[in-house]
Amino acid sequence: MACALLFRLLLLMALGAPSQGNGLSPTSHLRYSRFLDPSNIIFLRWDFDLEAEIITFELQVRTAGWVGLGVTNRYTNVGSDLVVGGVLPDGNVYFSDRHLVDEDTLEEDGSQDAELRGLTEDAVYTTMRFSRPFRSCDPHDQDITSDTVRVLAAYGLDDTLKLDRERTFVKSIFLLQIVHPDDLDVPEDTIIHDLEITDFLIPEDDTTYACTFLPLPIVSKKHHIYKFEPKMVQHNETMVHHILVYACGNASALPTGISDCYGADPAFSLCSQVIMGWAVGGTSYQFPDDVGISLGTPLDPQWIRLEIHYSNFHNLPGVYDSSGIRVYYTAELRKYDMGVLQLGFFTFPIHFIPPGAESFMSYGLCKTEKFEEMNRAPVPDIQVYGYLLHTHLAGRALQAVQYRNGTQLRTICKDDSYDFNLQETRDLPHRVEIKPGDELLVECHYQTLDRDSLTFGGPSTINEMCLIFLFYYPRNNISSCMGFPDIIYVAQELGEEASDSMEAMMAMNNVEWTPESIKKAEKACKEAQQTVIIKTIDEIVENTTGWISEIIRAPRGPCLESSGGKVEPQDKIPEGFRAAPMALSGSNTATWRRLPLAALLFGQGVLFLLLTTLQAGV
């Protein structure tokens, strides 16, 4: 017995005990998954521990060669981090934390911050599981954040570590999803209802906003919508940019048919309270178990406006569409009725972004002090639980910031790596309380280095928007609260004369846009007085004014030092090493991770001691 215990103890000393630091064992079920390439060759599973700030990945690739997973940025793969591994023909495993020094060359990091949890190869797949901190102290490692993350995946046909563009893929993913759909309840009495446009001939125009008015389900008692998803018709290319569902006030006189939302007939732009929305890259969304959209009471809308934005940039003829939103509703009532508050920059006609801008910030202010007066009833504190961010192609980042009594309280939501092709409703990690009188500021960050003319706010994809939709409870009648700057002041600060807003906007075409004038315009837009436009579900509109407050940027959190020690790239042997589990799960035969020379010498010494002890008969 003593021999057996001593043998196990010394073997663990030699080979390293399994790490229990992140709460996910080498065989734990990973809740999230996605294919990373169009041919479904690369499959990723992942999960994370928010408290420990550790994320675990499992990459499964149809190859007998090496596999790699990491994080890159919007502009280039050079500098990206990539964790690579594979199984050699003799059964030995190789695994390392690396980065790209050019488009196809990998160099090993001085600090090894990824921990191997399993690496196997069979007749079809190579599967690698590893953990890494959200933020390591290695400058070669990209952070895992609550922003959109551009995941880099690559593989080879053999064990030669060299990138091939045909086998390298980047996919934008929101990795730190707080709520998984499996965590939510699905009512047994679920009813499905489709809100869709029918056989609509998409015009041969770059941009079309098609609107129609549809009744919500008729129910004899109160129900709750608890989930929605896009109902799409597949085309040769994706032409549906976004779909919005607006609740209509029950006193509204609504037109029939399908027409341009913002065209000659203003009736087709009635109803402005968004209750559901989908945009490019989004999927289904299920509300938290205590929240739903109310149906069937006298206070609930009976009709909605369905808005579909089509982008037909190739001017394809003869394409018919029947897309829309599918809703799931139930008689099992939730605790709260939810609403959606639209914030941001009032889109038209004041918004502009200069050409050739490395960076340009736009701001839209919301002041909630008039909410109770416009709601015609007391407004309880708003509890925000989710959000949807929206800009067009020039957008790079967005955030919504909350102020109370002139002091910044928090950033409600943000994405510093916004991707136009991944617009989805996301849950907040904690619910945020907004009190009447609070100010809400939306900041949008744009880049227009690829443009040589002004970009204006507007409906087209080549125009711009700056919008954030907050999902909250309990519902009130306020549909939107958006701001825009005094454009006459902005024009005058840029040396242009203007007597009204339209003349000021036209004057922007006269400005010679240089890095200096771009910064001057950004400063003037921020310093100008903001007009705040507040609208209710019944189309009541009131204005107020305010000023943009400074935004205090949150510092980056502390990094997690690798227990392998910090080393310089030129160092051959780390100052210390982490002895990861050597026997990899799922293998038919034992495979071993290659260790630094110091570790091998240490292991040989322990094994020598073990043999000597056993021979002595201990």
UniProtKB/TrEMBL annotation:
InterPro entries, sorted: Cu2_ascorb_mOase-like_C, Cu2_ascorb_mOase_N, Cu2_ascorb_mOase_N_sf, Cu2_monoox_C, DBH-like, DOH_DOMON, DOMON_domain, PHM/PNGase_F_dom_sf
Signal peptide segment: 1-21
Domain DOMON: 40-156
SUPFAM superfamilies: PHM/PNGase F
Cofactors: Cu(2+)
Gene3D superfamilies assigned to the protein according to its UniProt record, in alphabetical order: 2.60.120.230, Copper type II, ascorbate-dependent monooxygenase, N-terminal domain
Pfam families: Cu2_monoox_C, Cu2_monooxygen, DOMON
Keywords of the record: Disulfide bond, Glycoprotein, Signal
Domain of life of the native organism: Eukaryota
Family: Belongs to the copper type II ascorbate-dependent monooxygenase family.
Listed PANTHER family: DBH-LIKE MONOOXYGENASE PROTEIN 2-RELATED, DOPAMINE BETA HYDROXYLASE RELATED
Protein name in UniProt: DBH-like monooxygenase protein 2
Native species: Ceratotherium simum simum
Name of the gene: LOC101391415
